[in-house]
Design goal:
The structure holds 2 protein chains of 2 kinds. Chain A is an alpha+beta fold. Chain A is built from 11 helices and 8 strands. Chain A folds into 3 domains: 7-94, Acyl-CoA dehydrogenase/oxidase, N-terminal domain (Butyryl-Coa Dehydrogenase, subunit A, domain 1), CATH 1.10.540.10; 129-237, Butyryl-CoA Dehydrogenase, subunit A, domain 2; 250-384, Up-down Bundle (Butyryl-CoA Dehydrogenase, subunit A, domain 3), CATH 1.20.140.10. Chain A has helices at residues 7-25, 44-56, 75-87, 96-109, 112-123, 238-248, 254-275, 281-306, 320-339, 355-366, 373-384; strands at residues 129-132, 148-152, 155-166, 173-179, 190-196, 202-207, 216-227, 231-232. The two termini of chain A are 42 Å apart. By secondary structure, chain B is of the alpha+beta class. The chains are: A alpha+beta, B alpha+beta.
Chain lengths: 391, 385
């Protein structure tokens, strides 16, 4: 057991930090702290330029193997990059869906042609991706996908609707789970298609959330097209590939995410001090509880990381989503109780929330998206504890 | 310093082997039947098991320096051992002898005192414990009323200590007392008192948790040589000793919580109602999933506390408070949930789950309830109350 970073790790950290500081003090100063969950509407154009700057400096695809155009960085170096990025309050990423979800999937399941076509523009920060999984009737029950795709004249023709698609309005491409076998049921007959977003057969409509903002969209496919070979992992293997993509989602970014959480907790502590709420015994208990919860989140992440590169994740990895979503939602509630009656006052018309109000309201989504708490508990019960399926 | 070893938050192979060897002995010799026999005996311990753990495995010498006959290992190893003891609910005076008594000597005694007192403990031939609590179990300095009065080259100790873990059998009592006419943290020191000293009366009390005996100890004008006073043990050192002990207790709670989860899950797989295993119902599955989250999170807290105890002295106090509060809550909740999942059978004396529930309650209170530890954390991040 050794919780210290090596000298090599610290040298890498210094390099990352210096680059981020130079950019976020200079050309990209106006982007510091912009975007991220709850604030995805901010500075979209500027953040697209920022993605290309990250790519140009070689920070994208850090963990991809060198054969795929990446740097083959160790897990620890990837963690350090995410930590420093969060610490520097780098702008909320809009290229991460391509870089951290689609790219690993293509590296694992894609053809050589797909790797050559799709990885380099992601690595340069030029092409942005969105994820086409959820549908109005396929949320927690993802296997109930109804969007159909059929081969007509060497092209897929896609008809249906996806929902809760982040960044759909700025994305160039979508990876969409579609039913390619018309008579199929459930997990069978699905395929994982790569679909260009800028075409007449696709309409994107933003969803206004309870925060008043929009960061998720509905995507309507009305005879949208994509070439026959833009299917990852073979026709009919879509479920397997889609699940593999979800596994990449619990990766190394979690320690960076926690630094963002720490910044939020610091803001709550500052507000508590300013308002005298730090003398209230109940608030003191809850601030301590939040602090303890965040420390434990970090240690669990380090235990999972220590399990090593490659191979199956240890069972404790399965608690990550349930843990942080629940913790973060509770943090939002604490923020409001610290602010007291003033929590009710929105600082700017028409409905521009301050960051703690945004945290409180947006964190209702945390326990729903990327696998709701209920789905996470099913997964833990069945995969970590071996309890029988409920049907 | 040059660190080239990659960061790794997991037991080393050697630590893992130690854990497994303890686990093997406990699986063979610390079944629930052993625990029940021991807890119903007069002393409340299992002497045969103690002989194996202390004598054969040498566990009482784990954190004792090699110069004093120990293994010279650290708190990471101790955390691994405590977790296993907690799983088994082993009735042995290990927590008292190692986490409390030995910690007190390691923190508070000088070289000469350690040379005199530690070898017998490391060899497993003497047990020890810490007698720091009095009337209502209050952990504050003001609650220490036992008085140590100098008398020539001797010390005369008088007081009434309570909640002394294994105090009725320990060979050596480390007693917290104060100098005459002092208050608060002033004048507090620790004294090494052989349990056979004239004037010492000890009585095991009846406790809800029968697996870890507590004793009342009356000290009536006990005469001790001046060197019985530990050389560097004032109030801040006592707080530090209790932080070390809390790390051990938190690890034990992780083991207990893990066993509660295992018992609940095993039962949910075989108990059938409505024609199917109850573990196939989401109401049961989700409760088990929440228990799993608590157990794994508690484990992270306890392991980190072990790391801090071994290598990060400045972080010990906060890491111990963090672990003790979280692990106490996790164990208590898991034990209660395990009873619920067992249904009626879980309410019987015959089933073992109540032993864990009672241990969870007792260890939650000992060394301070979660609210007290959370307030300590609050003080470290927000400042005074």
């Amino acid at each position: 057991m050794d919780l210290r970073f090596t000298d090599d790790d610290e040298a890498f950290r210094s390099t990352v930090r210096a680059w981020l500081e130079a950019q976020l003090e200079g050309e990209f100063r106006h982007l510091r702290g912009c975007g991220g969950p709850g604030r995805e509407h901010e500075q979209i154009e500027g953040r697209m330029v920022w993605e290309r700057a990250l790519g140009g400096a070689g920070w994208l695809g850090l963990g991809w193997p060198q054969s795929a155009g990446g740097r083959g960085a160790s897990l620890i170096h990837q963690v350090i990059f995410h930590e420093e990025y969060a610490r520097a309050r780098g702008p909320g990423r809009i290229g991460h869906i391509g870089e951290q979800l689609l790219a690993p999937t293509v590296i694992a399941f894609g053809s050589d042609e797909q790797k050559a076509r799709f990885l380099p523009p992601i690595g340069r920060g030029e092409e942005l991706w969105c994820q086409g999984y959820s549908e109005p009737n396929a949320g927690s029950d993802l296997a109930n996908v109804q969007t159909r795709a059929e081969l007509v004249g060497g092209q897929w023709r896609i008809t249906g609707q996806k929902i809760w698609t982040s960044h759909a309005h700025v994305s160039d491409w979508c990876f969409a789970v579609c039913r390619t076998d018309p008579g199929s049921q459930r997990h069978k007959g699905l395929s994982y298609l790569l679909v260009p977003m800028r075409q007449p057969g696709i309409t994107v409509r933003p969803i206004r959330q309870l925060t008043g903002n929009s960061e998720f969209c509905e995507v309507f496919f009305d005879g949208a097209r994509t070439p026959a070979d833009h299917v990852v992992g073979g026709v009919g293997d879509g479920w397997k590939v889609a699940m593999a993509t979800l596994a990449f989602e619990r990766g190394v970014s979690t320690l960076g995410q926690q630094i963002g959480f720490a910044n939020e907790l610091d803001a709550i502590i500052a507000a508590a001090r300013q308002r005298g709420a730090d003398r209230d015994p109940d608030i003191r208990q809850r601030i301590a509880d939040a602090w303890i919860g965040l420390r434990i989140m970090r240690w669990t992440a380090l235990r999972v990381l220590s399990h090593g590169e490659g191979g199956e994740l240890p069972p404790e990895a399965l608690i990550s989503k349930l843990y942080w979503a629940t913790w973060h939602q509770r943090l939002g509630e604490l923020a409001m109780d610290v602010l007291g009656a003033d929590a009710e006052i929105v600082p700017h018309a028409p409905y521009e929330l301050d960051p703690l109000q945004e945290l409180f309201l947006f964190s209702r989504a945390d326990t729903i998206y990327a696998g709701s708490n209920e789905i996470q508990r099913n997964i833990i019960a069945q995969r970590a504890l071996g309890l029988p399926r409920s049907h | 310093m040059f660190y080239s070893q990659a960061m790794r938050f997991a037991f080393s192979d050697e630590q893992e082997e130690l854990r497994r060897s303890v686990c093997r002995v406990l699986n063979a010799h610390a079944s629930a039947a052993h625990t029940r026999r021991a807890m119903e005996s007069e002393v409340g311990h299992d002497p045969a098991l103690w002989k194996r753990l202390a004598g054969e495995l040498g566990l009482t010498g784990l954190v004792v320096p090699e110069a004093h006959g120990g293994a010279g290992l650290g708190w990471i190893e101790l955390v691994a051992v405590m977790e296993e003891l907690g799983k088994a609910l082993a009735c042995v005076p290990f927590f008292s002898t190692v986490c409390l008594g030995t910690s007190a000597l390691l923190v508070g005694a000088d070289d000469d005192q350690q040379r005199e007192l530690l070898p017998a403990i490391a060899a497993g031939t003497a047990t020890t414990t810490l007698a720091h609590l009095e009337s209502d179990g209050d952990l504050g300095a003001d609650a220490i009323n036992a008085v140590a009065t100098p008398d020539g080259d001797q010390i005369v100790l008088t007081g009434h200590k309570r909640h002394v873990v294994d105090g009725h059998t320990a060979d050596l009592l480390i007693v917290a007392a104060r100098a005459p006419a002092t208050r608060g943290a002033d004048g507090i020191a620790l004294y090494a008192v052989p349990a056979t000293s004239p004037g010492v009366t000890r009585q095991r009390v009846v406790t809800i948790d029968q697996t870890r005996p507590l004793a009342d100890i009356v000290l009536d004008r006990v005469r001790l040589p001046a060197r019985a006073r530990l050389a560097r043990a004032a109030w801040p050192e006592l707080e530090r000793i209790l932080a070390f002990a809390a790390v051990g207790l938190a690890a034990e709670q992780v083991g207990g919580a893990q066993r509660c989860l295992d018992l609940a899950v095993d039962y949910a797989k075989v108990r059938t109602q409505f024609g199917r295993p109850i573990g196939s119902f989401q109401a049961i599955q989700h409760r088990c999933a929440d228990m799993f989250l608590l157990v794994e999170s508690a484990r992270s807290a306890a392991y980190y506390a072990g790391w801090a105890a071994a290598h990060e002295p400045d972080e010990l106090a906060t890491a111990a408070a963090t672990a003790k509060s979280y692990c106490s809550d996790a164990f208590f909740r898991c034990a209660g949930d395990a009873i619920q999942i067992h249904g009626g059978i879980g309410f019987t004396w015959e089933h073992d789950i109540h032993l864990y529930f009672k241990r969870a309650r007792a260890s939650r209170a000992f060394l301070g309830e979660p609210t007290l530890h959370r307030e300590r954390v609050a003080q470290s991040i927000l400042g005074g109350e």
